[in-house]
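Support reply, case 0932

Customer input (verbatim):
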Amino acid sequence: MANSNIKLIYFNQPGRAEAIRLLLAAAGKAYEEVNVNLDQWQEMKPSAPCGTIPIIEVDGKRFGQSRAIATYLAREFDLYGKESLDGLKIDQTAQVAEDFIMEFANKYYFVKESDKKDEGAKTLKEETAPKYLGFFEKYIREEGTGFICGSKITLGDIVVFDICTGFLKPFIDDSLSSFPLVQALVKMVESNARIKQYLATKKSS
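Our regenerated output:
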């Protein structure tokens, strides 16, 4: 895998591909990114492996589904723990994050009526975000190392970081101070040398 050629195909935005980018940054793995617009994506969609985006290309072979891609990369680059139970903890965290994203989609993103959208935003801030941040806080506390799993950054930590700093951030900011372990984890991931460099490059581009 270290010598594999990796190409990431996605829109020119963080979205569903950001955890993948963060993983590749943490691994120090060089890759090519191809950004497409909506018209280009519509042309590509019928031939996409899963009919969804992002897509990763490994030595010319294409694969879909963001969580599957992230898990594959985490395993390949030693960001998935050491034991089977570590993988379970990481997958649990990733699935909880996925549940949070789905609630966001159903309560806000896909809602058309402005009054219902406002109601959804209120619910996300006051109820949904504290619920899921509470899960993450519990996992970190139970692990006792400051990480989701073990004593170094894994996919689990990157998932939590992405949730707290990505497109859900506006719904999380009001609650984050009530979850000090999650806050500390976000700062810890952000201070990782490779991730810090990636974020600085991203900010300047």
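We compared this against your earlier run and they match. Two observations from our side: The chain has a mean pLDDT of 96. DSSP finds nine helices and four strands in the chain. Please reopen the case if you see a mismatch on your end.
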